[in-house]
Amino acid sequence: MTPSGVPVIVLAGFLGSGKTTLLNHLLRTSRMRIGVLINDFGAINIDALLIAGQADGTVNLGNGCICCSVDADGLEDTLLRLTRPRAGIDAVVIEASGIAEPRTLIRMVTAIADARIRYGGLVYVVDAVSVSMVRDRHPEIDHHVSVADLIVVNKADLVEPPELERVGDLVRSVNPTAPRVVTIDGALDPAVLFDPVERVIPDDVGPRQLTLDELVEEIAHDHSAGDGADSEGDHSGHLHAAYTSVEFTSAEPMDPRALAAVLERPPVGSYRIKGVVSFDLPGHRQRYVVHAVGGFVRVDRGPWRGEQPSTALVVIGTGLDADDVRRRLSEAVRRTDTTDEHGILSITRHLPDAG
Ligand SMILES: Nc1nc2c(ncn2[C@@H]2O[C@H](COP(=O)(O)OP(=O)(O)OP(=O)(O)O)[C@@H](O)[C@H]2O)c(=O)[nH]1
Questions:
Q1: What is the bridge-based pairing of β-strands 91-95 and 6-13?
Q2: Rounded to 5 degrees, what are φ and ψ at 46?
Q3: Bridge partners of 122?
Q4: Helix (H, G, I), strand (E, B) or coil at 104
Q5: Which of 93, 137, 203, 235 is 20 to 30 A distant from 307 in Cα terms?
């Protein structure tokens, strides 16, 4: 028998492991109506930008780590609103920031005593390339893996089979019971996560089902009305205590060669750079999405979605010199006197199909 209540799944994993990629895959391939709660680290919510347009309903929980910036009541309110029968949501996924403390989040979800929702488990994404290095730096990652209900070993395309096997053994030694799935680009079969549903909207839910835009608007309004305080107290032992982020925005287009240099040789202390970039060059006026994780750079591009082309980047790391980061990015804003017609190649060579 399928348990009752809308499942609330927590999606976690270290910085850059592939959580947003996996979530986008689920949103594209699942036939369910999925509500998404996103919590990103940094004042500009890049993950919300990267998911926008894909999710049925996206609620941006704002700046900071979810376990700090959203108090238990705020999370409860949001979840209960999101799962009202009129909303017709089949499942909720909370994407935690890459340095969130999943156990705190799980406690917050399981503490909600309302039959309308149930905790749907922790899906933990492991980056096959960097997991060993990340464990050396942050042994507490093992605690996160150990409480996972499903472990997704992602980026299988970037490691040789023996290394993949080694990562599998390592994960199993930390969490012997959770099932493991190996993926490329987070291509997880939604059936692994969600029970099939037959959506029945009860008769007593009012004149009509809410559109998700209406729902999101309502929830966003509630959030701006009262931002949560820290309900969990001391976060000094959490991963995010050591990390800071630096945001950068520019209405002026960027210089591709200079930006590529920042992505390939990131500022001292930087572990993760991500964002949306405008180059505004002939043939390259699309919306570029750039990612750097450890030493890996990846670029994707697509159309702007009605927004004004501009650049928004976040750099996350430990011991970042914010002034230096901003200076390097400011220097990568395109100067009008430059004519570097091949500069864009330093960016397009990181497109997945660039060979
Ligand atoms: N080659 C390869 N790249 C991947 C794979 N999965 C994700 N990526 C890339 O890795 C980068 C980070 O992916 P995201 O999905 O943004 O990672 P995240 O865990 O959401 O990152 P944070 O929110 O910053 O913690 C992006 O450039 C992705 O395109 C994969 O399986 N293979």
A1: parallel
A2: -65, -40
A3: 10
A4: helix
A5: 93
CA distances from 102 to 65, 227, 238, 337, 355 (A): 10, 21, 10, 49, 37
Which among 201, 154, 183, 120 has a CA at the least distance from the CA of 17?
154
Q: What is the ipTM of this complex?
A: 0.99
**Mean per-residue pLDDT, 56-66:** 41
144 close to ligand 1 (CB < 6 Angstrom): no
Q: Which residues contact 321 (CB under 8 A, 6 or more apart)?
A: 267, 268, 269
**Domains of the chain: which residue ranges?**
6-225, 243-354
Structural contact between residues 19 and 39, judged by C-beta atoms closer than 8 angstroms: no
Q: Where are the alpha helices (DSSP H) in the chain?
A: 19-29, 46-51, 66-69, 72-82, 102-110, 131-137, 141-146, 161-174, 190-193, 212-225, 256-264, 322-331, 345-348
pLDDT above 90 covers a percentage of the chain that reads: 39
Assigned CATH for 243-354: 3.30.1220.10
Distance 19 CA to ligand 1 centre (A): 7
Cα–Cα dist 265/226, whole Å: 40
Measured in angstroms, how far is the CA atom of residue 177 from the centroid of ligand 1?
Answer: 26
Q: Phi/psi at 169 (nearest 5 deg)?
A: -65, -40
Q: Which atom of ligand 1 is nearest to the CA of 158?
A: 1
The CATH architecture assigned to 6-225 reads: 3-Layer(aba) Sandwich (3.40)
Residues 6+ apart with CB under 8 A from 245: 41, 42, 43, 314, 315, 316, 320
Question: Given the CA of residue 187, which atom of ligand 1 is nearest to it?
Answer: 31
Our answer on whether the CB atom of 240 is closer than 6 Å to any ligand 1 atom is no
Nearest protein Cα to ligand 1, atom 15: 18
The residue whose CA is least distant from atom 7 of ligand 1 is: 18
Other CB atoms within a 10 A radius of the CB of residue 95 amount to 28
Per-residue confidence (pLDDT) for residue 63, from 0 to 100: 35
pLDDT tens for 122-137 read 999 999 999 999 999 8
| Count of other CB atoms within 10 angstroms of residue 342 | 8
Residue 69's region, left for phi above 0, alpha for psi from -120 to 50, else beta, is alpha
